[in-house]
Description:
The chain has 184 residues and is of the alpha+beta class. It contains four helices and seven strands.
Amino acid sequence: xxxxxxxxxxxxxxxxxxxxxxxxxxxxxxxxxxxxxxxxxxxxxxxxxxxxxxxxxxxxxxxxxxxxxxxxxxxxxxxxxxxxxxxxxxxxxxxxxxxxxxxxxxxxxxxxxxxxxxxxxxxxxxxxxxxxxxxxxxxxxxxxxxxxxxxxxxxxxxxxxxxxxxxxxxxxxxxxxxxxxxxx
Length: 184
Ligand SMILES: CC(C)(COP(=O)(O)OP(=O)(O)OC[C@H]1O[C@@H](n2cnc3c(N)ncnc32)[C@H](O)[C@@H]1OP(=O)(O)O)[C@@H](O)C(=O)NCCC(=O)NCCS
């Protein structure tokens, strides 16, 4: 992912998204959500986005989406930037205590549906080379590795870390993502 520099078929449909419902819903991210988002961001990353990164991203009109529980608490989120015929997934994050429950897949399902509705044929992203969990998620979702950005991410005293570029093609007409309660 890229914070504006760093930088998110269903695994469970294609291998594992959980059934819809479960009292979850998707809604757009707004500036009013940023306290909750930043709390999750700091819990999830060694090098989190800053509040300014989120503010700038929302102000730029990027698509910010929250996955929220029925009680209103934020479970996860994604931010994506639209290009001419592609979507750049900038940030995909699930709160640590909610991970491995299919929530990233729900967010990706929604993003894929959104892209298809707009006629966008490709989603791409950067991911840290060391982020084995995220790399596995994207591979299971059908993303392929298409490039490498050397020294793309900060890595503390160790210097910089490479990013893998991954890409998902969304052929026109593919319709394996179901309509569900999380769609909007
Ligand atoms: C990566 C991340 C978004 C995954 O969210 P999640 O809700 O836990 O993912 P899901 O439950 O939808 O996982 C679907 C599948 O992806 C793979 N996967 C996800 N996290 C994994 C992990 N930590 N290790 C190995 N495989 C993983 C598994 O195949 C998983 O299916 P399974 O649970 O049936 O084995 C989450 O771990 C996260 O927010 N991490 C910190 C932030 C981050 O790294 N974001 C991505 C930046 S590019």
